[in-house]
Amino acid sequence: MMRVTFITQRQDIISGTETSDLMKEWPYLFEITGMKIHFEELTGMDVDENNIANKCARVVSFLKHNDKTERMAAIFREMETSSKNVAVFLPLLLKYFNEEEDQMFFKVDQTTLPSEVDCTKLPSTPCYMLSVDQTIVNGRITVFSKALILMFGSYYCMNISYPAGQAATLEFLQRVKINPDKGSKVVRNTSKTHLAVSPKVLTLITKIADYEWRA
């Protein structure tokens, strides 16, 4: 049914329907299966959760062995007690690009219910639990890799541009993890000349490729 009603879903999203109304009209759009189907219909790309986990592990391995700076120290110490590469992947990437974590993660107590979150403090862009446009659209995500797919998929499915504060991190995700590899959703400053892909993102991709080739 998500495939059959895809065009109607797109019409509602493009017309600017409020997120709270989309949740009522299309309740499965913000579930992992529904989001993956919508993303595939929209981009032609299938999201493979196992593939994403493997790629996250490769990036974590590169950063662990090649970036010994103090800014990474706390996250590296956390990694020593955790085998969840996907969970530490985004904080590492944000630190590497010197980007703003608080715009992607709004931290609450582990026992906090979605109804107890002060949504006025949430960013309008997708973050985990998962919130979109300051509305919690899914508060029942138990696996971080699914949260990552839902967050990234929301940028495409909901027509949201990458915020400047996480532009490199999200573009890196686009290029080496979920794709598509054409175009960009980064908010552009028209007063400057922009390359198709951020030089910081290209540099990291090249370094990881060289590291894996030498391994």
Task: Tell me what you see in this structure.
The protein has 215 residues and is an all-alpha fold. It has one domain (48-214). It contains 9 helices and 2 strands, in the order ααααααββααα. It has helices at residues 6-14, 19-25, 32-43, 49-66, 70-79, 85-96, 144-157, 167-178, 199-214, and strands at 131-132, 135-136. A two-stranded antiparallel ribbon has the order 1-2. Helix 3 (32-43) packs across helix 7 and helix 5 packs antiparallel against helix 6. It is globular, with a radius of gyration of 17 Å. The model has no long low-confidence stretch (mean pLDDT 82).
Tag the structure with descriptive keywords:
215 residues; globular; single chain; two-stranded antiparallel ribbon; mainly alpha
